[in-house]
Amino acid sequence: MLVGLTNCLWRGVLSRANHLERNPLKETDLYLPIKTYLEAQGYEVKAEVCACDVVGVRGDEPPVIVELKTGFTLPLLLQGVDRLAVSDRVYLAFAVSEVAAKNSLWSKSRKEIKKLCRRLGLGLISVRVNEQRDDFVEVHLDPLPYTPRKNTKRQGRLLREFELRVGDPNEGGITRRTIITAYRQDALRCLKHLHHNGPTKLADLRAATGVMRASGILQNDHYGWFERVARGVYQVTPKGTAALDDFAEALAAI
Q1: Could you tell me if 101 and 175 lie in one domain?
Q2: What residues make up the domain containing 209?
Q3: What pTM does this model have?
């Protein structure tokens, strides 16, 4: 197994023939770097054994299985999960460019990919490719058992937000639309009261609306709806007046 070698690099200059231009990149182009890397760890390596791209055996240890793809993809992930039925020592290996493409899944979501593989018990290997074909292998994760620890603070925030939010003002899966949070609902309560009653002291606003965090909401003024006109006294801004129409449905619900 490659445990203990995570984040170690292996660099190997390929043969002169392999320096020739190879476009497009193929899965087979990853085999030699992976094979050489495993052999350096003492494994005997063979390809395409019972549908597994790469199999490494070292003594009496369980086999190491490596699945190859030219990029990190869902099919690669699914293959890795399937190979876990054969061995607990499964790695996903994929090619990465010397200059990572901005739209590549690995470039955009590296942290999330590693978290997913860690939860699934899959190892993760990248083979960096450059124009000179001076490729090298990097092991990002080893396939170890994983029991995630719950983040009690995040869970607490989740439950508080759920409890404080009035009704169900949002539609699951929405994009490009403002989400109505409990904080925004409290701000809307303050906005509605100030609109109907004019400039108001914070103490009176808290008492009238029941919004205990009214001071922070008006003083921080995240939405640009409020302005102070005297010490502890606030009124609605033109932007706040416009928000009454923009959030009419949310106001009606609270």
Answers
A1: no
A2: 167-253
A3: 0.67
Q: Is the peptide bond before 75 cis (omega within 30 degrees of 0)?
A: no
User: Helix, strand, or coil here: 197?
Assistant: helix
> In DSSP terms, which residues pair with 227 in a beta bridge?
235
8 Å CB contact between 93 and 71: no
Instruction: Tell me the C-alpha to C-alpha distance, in Å, between residue 103 and each of 97, 98, 108, 165.
Output: 12, 14, 7, 36
The per-residue pLDDT for range 151-182, each reduced to its tens digit, is 899 889 989 999 999 999 998 888 888 999 99
Higher pLDDT: 131 or 194? It is 194
> Mean pLDDT, the chain, as a whole number?
86
pLDDT in tens, 36-47: 999 999 999 999
- Render 174-195 in DSSP notation, one character per residue: --SS----HHHHHHHHHHHHHH
Bridge partners, residue 64, by sequence: 56
Return all residues near 236 (Cβ < 8 A) that are at least 6 apart. 191, 194, 195, 225, 226, 227
- Whether 200 is in a domain gets the answer yes
- Do 131 and 184 lie in one domain? The reply is no
Does residue 124 share a domain with residue 171?
Answer: no
Number of H helices, E strands in the chain: 9, 10
| Cα–chain center distance at 221 | 30
Enter the tokens of residue 149.
């620890």
Which pLDDT tens digit goes with each residue over 66-102?
999 988 999 999 999 999 999 999 999 999 876 556 6
